[in-house]
Specification:
Strand order of the largest sheet: 1-2
Number of helices: 9
Strand content: under 5%
Structural class: mainly alpha
Oligomer: single chain
């Protein structure tokens, strides 16, 4: 319709009408682009809010995960400390509990820090959809530091391998069948929550107990056990720091909404 009108005006050499038609076309294109840009900006802001909300959900999940890890490694640490103290006693004073403590002290828990939303932001190239530069920088810095802490969170002390190579297999099997394993359950977010064993039994003959105790004492496991205890202390400290950091960053994003 507009094209036909322009052609008619050209044929009639109505230059004023031609200029007006040109202005109308330009204004229409300009307004169309502005409306498109405005809609795109609104979509970006909406998507940014969704991403930030999801990052907050990840932060709460991480906070809960850190609390679980603190409880888990605190329990393992108690057994490690008991095993270390027992090694300094006469062999005749030791019993099945020494084997139980030594076994549980070898437990570890390797798991990744929750960062699904952040990884999605990076893979989709959507970080720039968050309009606030400071928020973008804070998000990137938070996960950069978290990635650096993963090494300490997931380190496995050499005591685990040393104990498993030294303790007779029959005793390890009896411990596992006697509920001396960590238990795993799914929490409300679908994440796996681990719990250190609370009550476990060791059903083996007295002579097996004596032989296993003698073998553990004959092997110099104390340096590895000491190193494991130091590792547990460091882990618990790191978990507490990241529990607080997750809550603090959640609060920052909440205030920035």
């Amino acid at each position: 319709m507009l094209l036909h009108r322009v052609i008619d005006h050209v044929k009639a050499q109505n230059w004023t009408a031609i200029v007006l038609d040109f202005v109308i076309v330009v204004m229409g294109v300009f307004i169309g682009i502005q409306v498109s840009n405005w809609n795109a900006a609104r979509r970006d802001v909406s998507e940014a809010r969704v991403y930030i909300g999801r990052i907050q959900e990840d932060l709460l999940a991480n906070k809960q995960d850190m609390a679980m890890r603190i409880a888990y490694f605190s329990g393992v640490r108690e057994h490690a400390l008991a095993a270390l103290n027992a090694r300094r006693k006469p062999a005749t004073a030791l019993d099945k509990q020494f084997l139980i403590d030594s076994f549980i002290a070898s437990f570890s828990l390797v798991r990744s820090y929750q960062r699904n939303t952040y990884d999605e932001l990076l893979s989709a190239g959507a970080m720039n959809k968050i309009p606030d530069v400071e928020i973008r920088n804070r998000i990137a810095e938070y996960y950069r530091v978290a990635e650096g802490s993963q090494y300490y969170m997931n380190s496995v002390p050499g005591y685990e391998d040393a104990l498993r190579r030294t303790m007779p297999y029959e005793v390890q099997a009896a411990l596992r069948f006697g509920d001396c394993n960590a238990s795993f359950a799914t929490d409300e977010t679908g994440a796996i929550a681990a719990t250190a064993p609370q009550d476990c039994t060791l059903d083996i003959a007295p002579e097996q107990t004596s032989a296993a105790i003698s073998k553990l004492l004959a092997t110099d496991l104390e340096p590895d056990l000491t190193r494991a205890l130091a590792d547990f202390d460091l882990k618990i400290q790191i978990f507490r720091i990241w529990e607080d950091r997750a809550q603090a960053f959640y609060d920052y994003l909440e205030d920035a909404k």
